[in-house]
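> tool_call: predict_assembly(chains=two)
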Amino acid sequence: MAKVLVVTSGKGGVGKTTTTAAMGVALAQSGQKVVVIDFDIGLRNLDLVMGAERRVVFDLINVVQGVAKLPQALIRDKRLENLSLLPASQTRDKDALTEEGVGRVMTELRANFDWIICDSPAGIERGALLAMRFADEALIVTNPEVSSVRDSDRIIGMLDSKTVKAENGERVQKHVLITRYDPSRAAKGEMLSIDDVLEILATPLLGIVPESEDVLRASNVGSPVTLNNPVSAPARAYIDATKRLLGETIPMTVPAERVGFMTRLLGRRAA
Amino acid sequence: MNDTAEAPRQLVRLRGRSYVAFVFAPAVPIVGWLDEIDETLKRSPGFFVGKPVVLDLSSVDLSRPAILHLIVSLEKRNIRILGIEGVDAGLLTSTMPPLLTGGRNCAIQSIEPEKADVKQLPNSLLLDSPVRSGQSIFFPEGDVTVVGSVGSGAEIVAGGSIHVYGTLRGRAMAGVNGNSAARIYCQKIEAELLAIDGYYQTAEELDVALRNRPAQAWLEGEIMRITPLN
């Protein structure tokens, strides 16, 4: 059974595209047939993060409007053969998406893939609504700060009311993924704690991805972090989250501050 | 010119209307039958008051004086006869009720006054999932109960009281229809705004000592009181 997973957040810059790419790779590496779709029409990024920006011919809008066939628009990843990308159009805007067209694309993709990951644009308008419209599961990407958490709360409300599943009286299965978690700032109390975030969102946690240079480095070379440096802390967090998504039970680890040898020696004094 | 204007002619309109009448079919002996009527009246006096009654004489053979006697006997019991059927027209005098024909049988509908069958509208609303940011619950009919939290940026507007079994982070407006007895209860108070019957307090005015505690808010005159529960 194919599953449509929407990666959404409400707020921009929290890591939706990074997460889509990283988890798309991790799912593909575990043997699933995966397609990642960029719904950010007009501000596309997923092609860059996936390193496919120079291979884009047709895009989602072309397929939705019937200008191109789905196989023509899909870009198969060069490194992983069961991972594909359906890019967004950079020259159009979100009004070019139609519900009927998106529904048709989803139905066609469901027949050919195990996972359809929709990278939602920020905001709560048409683009974000159509990205979540046909979802079976939702990954709510949240940073541990109040504005991001409140926006996520808003998005969860919409997942519970504006999706096809919700309208049919079913429920979209929701997961929270906390990204850009900074252990040193968390220790100083400069960020919301994991417990605070989960208390506010009242939604199960799928994983905690630490803030890391590795993510930025991976994006810059057009390779998802799970592919670029699979042993890095964020990559391991994404791989664990992917396993949990597939139903495995993996203990949750809260990233801790890496303490240097000298700091540890000196730190003792304070106690 | 004719100066005595003729009065405009009044149009006579005839309308048909049908009524349901009780039909009495007396049986011989008439005295015994009248006793039966008396029994009925003893059980429920006034049973026939104001009800149209028709005498069906088709099963008895009565003379003119006997018919007259019967009518008078019934009148003594406060039963007035609307018409008579099943009898030869020649037997009736002009002072007697008129002869009726063409009556049809029908079921007599319940004589009890119909009870007002107005369903009581529910005056409380129960939500058993969290109220998320951006959602607005508007229920002017009565109380709202939330089993879960009310997110920052969410609002609940109720005609009655508001109960939140979770953290209240959004806005709660109770008693919006001028119900100053309405109250707001929550398990943890972090509200952006509390209002009862138009009197409100924002988060800024909220006592810091109350934060994160179970609390209730109510109106004392024009002052909103917020106190911890337990």
